[in-house]
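Anyone opening a protein record will find just a pair of labelled lines. With that in mind, the following record should read easily:
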Amino acid sequence: MGILDFVRGAGTKLEKKDDPDEAFLERRKGNELMQHVFALGFEVDKFRVDYDDGVATVKGKVTDQSTRERVVLAIGNTQGVARVDDQLEVVEPAPEATMYTVKSGDTLGKIAREHYGDAAKYPTIFEANRPLLTDPNKIYVGQVLRIPPLSE
């Protein structure tokens, strides 16, 4: 999947109190990102996240492409992360989903109409982004979503 860009100031806030040691803060941020992924219920074998100046490097092994993409999105859609260097290994490779960055005025219906030609197919996008999305009406500008092929 490679490197994906995200809006660094948007997303779920995981920050804790400041610490003067930058290396310590970056290790802590990497650990917080890993905990966030595990809290969402994703399983990643030999999981590791290194964080350095807005770039999260993700390593490990996942079972399928969908999990890979959602792990990357969980990390990238977090405040402070500007870029994800995806180095995850996939046991069962499959074609990649399209990644879409939410713009002002977007709704899942509008995005579904743009990608599938039918706004009523928004549940496909919602389900493809669970558990990252908990409500189809709660998306935000700068958030990156996966748009899977309709056959998924």
Notes: The chain has two domains: 2-92, 98-147. The radius of gyration is 15 Å. The first strand starts at residue 2 and ends at 5.
